[in-house]
Design brief:
homodimer, Arc Repressor Mutant, subunit A, Aspartate Aminotransferase, domain 2, Aspartate Aminotransferase, domain 1, four-stranded antiparallel beta sheet, globular
């Protein structure tokens, strides 16, 4: 008698109890409740109301009472009755009362040329192939795939990745040592939390990296300890003697671009063995290498000492939040337990879809197409800078989706260059933004920009390139 | 000269450098590298190798060298050459060497009748409708939907949920106060972490609840403080006077089933206001109510003091890991910041799909269909127990996907009953498993079972019901 939870067009919660208790008549209580639902926006303009019969039954009141209430509200302009299409909520132009105003969004920069690093060209996302794979996955998944499952993630994707990562990156793992997570951000956080449980208090990182990643490390309870970089990658000889771990980007140092030299890879693994520590290998763009160099995953050197982290963020899209960890045996239990506490497991549908995409060979073809696309972009960038800004030096271009442009000593200071870029509508970061320890200032503080040449869609790339050349021409 | 990353059929990493450095000839080095890739499983049986021309180009070596290497390995049985279909990896039956054996999976119980609570009937997942909505979402999403976005989640779903929750549950919120998370587990963890930052050290919980949820609260750094339950829900008059928060299931106490009485709802909100604390409302099955009772969300009493948590885990599937928080203004910044640190944001494709499902009305129709389905199940359960086990008392059946079956004092003790259930292949929990403080033993410790009557698919439900009746008949 006092509420309804069912209508023809959708569910609606109406509460007549309080009004009835306060002595209001049945019809008046219903009118009040409907009026309020329209007024506060729960019933949006255009919403079709249930038939008087249906609402009467749901509320356990006479149909005529509903008819009368609808009639009254139609007369008042709240509702609209149209022959054949029932009763709907009237269109109004006034804002919905009772709602707090939307918070003002932060003033957006006038970004005309997006060269921010770390993002792929989102227009390449293979929508059709993804949907086709999702269809196959939905058609074949057992019912229990939609339920609660292992914190490691769906076996289908762990199996597909085991084979794929072995073939493409030389990773040595198996489905029982792979954990699927929502982005490398989460994976790194889980590993850091597991290391902290085991007594680690710091994580060595490369002196230039991704500041939000450093924030994540700190949030997981570890201090960061920057390692200097040179042409051969991180100076792993400076690793602390305390037990702990080091985060490296061996395939393509982020953002400076050097691959970690073979002897340093071996030295880092040796250090981890001796100190009972771990190397975390962030293979963020390992699939995008444009020239001939042997750069298998460092993880293959010692799967029990190297945590391998990979992601679909660059090869497909960051919005998928799909990443994976190949874990040493000793870390499987703690990381899976922490994953379980954090969110149970990762969403399954995208996992099943990616497994389909990989096993069908579509993923390989997509990655190859993207690689050609980005290599062309890179070549255009290199050629344009050679022509229009021959005084700059471009590094880190053998792989990945970004390059570092270094200006000669005495050129425009980085901060001023970035201000000019902003004024020209170019969005990018200076190299110094990537410094792990912002206080540190070494000999490598000559002005430099990090160029995400993969970011803009094709139609915007020529203009972005021209704007960048113009900026650097006079820098 | 020393590696390859491209083949026709897919990517493959081959490293010849070390072998060359060790003095091995070019052809022998290539043969060794291929042999090893087959042996350790990186090249799976049946994989098609690139043409000799393509591999030669990739490696920067003469095509003939590749032809000779392929010939040698074919002679050795590693590869198979077939006219017209190129060179493939030979089928072998031996296990892949170099792989660690799969860890033995825990001995599975012989579950024939799954009546474990907390899960919907997964055979109801609307695969076709979901795929159709995914197609629409993929067809219309802007490119930047696939990129990094707000930690709150996609605006499309936040907008759709604002309207849906207002209409169906009376929730008063807006898109700027909704945060999309991967399950209530994650949402609760984030809120607890935010409360801890603000000085909270404990969270009051109902004395019976979900132990994994309690573990999550503790992992976020809060101690739990159980509140007794009675027929009107949690005894909120026992709330501590310290600032803090309380986790409640007002619509349908989990698992005992009582709705929280109106005066207790008001008292809890008053307590939160006075102590500068918060109520967390876990509306885990608010859409599944079978009888006429006014049970809007408690959040509407004070959106600035009640955090509303909802989920698609019961209405669609737990595997989606899709849940939402309607947050008080003061908690938006801390919770969004912690979400950003935890995993950046939730995966977008399922968000866009659910938004489509809701705005098209398909979600409402699906929920209504499920509600009828589960109500029928509940009625069958009640009828069967009335007939075959009239001595038991069944409670908490006005809503939700589970019921509590209470046995009379002096009946078979709970532990023995559960052992008998296990022997009969019935999977379910005793009520005592849900106790927040396992040490506590009160007057409510008469044997009781929690029956998840929604869990089995239709074809298995009659047998599960019969097995349960048989178990209880003699209990």
């Amino acid at each position: 008698m006092s509420s309804s939870w069912t209508t023809f067009g959708g569910d609606l919660h109406l509460d007549l109890t309080e009004r009835r208790a306060a002595g209001t008549g049945l019809r008046a209580a219903l009118e009040d409740a409907l009026r309020e639902a329209v007024q506060d926006g729960r019933l949006a303009p255009g919403t079709r109301l249930p038939s008087s019969r249906a609402l009467g039954e749901d509320l356990g009141i006479a149909r005529n009472t509903v008819v009368e209430a609808y009639g009254q509200l139609t007369a008042e302009g709240w509702l609209t009755a149209r022959q054949g299409s029932g009763t709907t909520v009237a269109q109004r132009t006034a804002p919905r009362p009772g709602r707090r105003p939307a918070r003002p969004t932060a003033a957006r920069h006038d970004v005309r040329h997006d060269l921010m690093s770390g993002r792929p060209d989102l227009s390449l996302f293979p929508r059709t192939a993804w949907l086709a794979a999702a269809r196959r996955a939905l058609a074949t998944a057992p019912h229990d795939a939609f339920g609660y499952g292992s914190p490691l993630g769906r076996i289908e994707l762990r199996q597909a990745l085991t084979d794929y990562l072995a073939r493409v990156r030389g990773v040595r793992t198996d489905p029982d040592h792979l954990l699927l997570c929502t982005g490398v951000t989460q994976g790194l956080g889980l590993v850091c939390a597991a290391l902290r449980e085991r007594g680690a208090r710091t994580l060595a990182v490369e002196s230039y990296g991704l500041p939000p990643q450093h924030d994540g490390v700190r949030a997981a309870g570890l201090g960061i300890l920057p390692l200097p970089l040179d042409e051969a990658g991180a100076r792993v000889d400076r690793l602390d003697t305390r037990p702990g771990a080091v985060l490296l980007t061996p395939a393509h140092q982020f953002p400076t671009g050097a691959p970690l030299a073979p002897d340093r890879r071996a030295a880092a693994v040796r250090w981890a063995r001796e100190r009972n520590g771990y190397v975390i290998e962030d293979d963020y763009d390992g699939e995008f290498r444009y020239d001939r160099q042997p750069l298998g995953a460092m993880q293959a050197l010692d799967p029990e000492r190297v945590v391998y982290a990979g992601t679909a963020a660059k090869s497909l899209a960051p919005g998928l939040r799909l990443a994976w960890l190949a874990l040493p045996d000793a870390l499987v239990e703690p990381v899976a337990r922490l994953k379980s506490l954090a969110d149970g497991m990762s969403p399954v549908l995208d996992q099943l879809t990616l497994a389909e995409l990989i096993t069908s060979g579509t993923y390989d073809r997509h990655v190859r197409r993207c690689r050609l696309h980005y290599r062309r972009r890179r070549d255009q960038l290199v050629a344009a800078l050679a022509e229009h800004a021959p005084h700059v030096r471009i590094t880190g271009i053998a792989a990945g989706l970004h390059a570092v442009v270094q200006l000669p000593p005495g050129a425009t200071p980085e901060a001023e260059l970035l201000a000019r870029a902003g004024a020209a509508g170019i969005s990018l970061n200076g190299l110094s933004w990537h410094r792990a320890d912002p206080a540190e200032a070494g000999p490598d503080t000559a002005p430099a920009l990090v160029i995400g040449y993969a970011t803009p869609p094709d139609r915007d790339f020529p203009a972005a390139l021209a704007a960048l050349c113009e900026l650097l021409r006079t820098a």
